Amino acid sequence: MPEAPGFDPGQLDRLIHAPVRLAAVSALYSGGEETFAALKKVTGATDGNLTAHLQVLEQHGVLKVRKRFVERRPCTSYRLTDKGRALFRDYVEMMARMVREHSGEAPG
């Protein structure tokens, strides 16, 4: 099957294209700030797997981590940085363009 004109799958940002990272970034984009427990529920990832993915996103400046105590219990939460919000918007726009091109819809 020939590729759609203008869409290059190699241009997808691999940093957020991984399923666990994409689910986490999507939840943070729409939810603002989420706890580790909430992201674990959304992604379905194990503690270790989610931690590794979130660390990658943090190292690349996609999200910020906030650690605090709530009723004497540690609580870690995450929110997207401006860079993270822009990466997600760009990713969604690229996917929308791919869908339009494959469906024959006019841009816009």
Give structural notes.
By secondary structure, the chain is an alpha+beta fold. The protein has one domain (14-102): Winged helix-like DNA-binding domain superfamily/Winged helix DNA-binding domain (Arc Repressor Mutant, subunit A), CATH 1.10.10.10. 56% of the residues lie in helices and 18% in strands. The chain has five helices and three strands. It has helices spanning 14-17, 19-31, 36-43, 47-59, 82-103, and strands spanning 33-35, 63-70, 73-80. Helix 2 (19-31) packs across helix 3.
- Tell me the structural class: alpha+beta
- Report the helical percentage: 55-70%
**CATH structural class:** Mainly Alpha
Q: What is the name of the CATH superfamily?
A: Winged helix-like DNA-binding domain superfamily/Winged helix DNA-binding domain
User: How far is the N terminus from the C terminus?
Assistant: 25 Å
Task: Please outline the helices and strands.
Elements: H1 14-17, H2 19-31, E1 33-35, H3 36-43, H4 47-59, E2 63-70, E3 73-80, H5 82-103
Antiparallel strand pairs: 1-3, 2-3
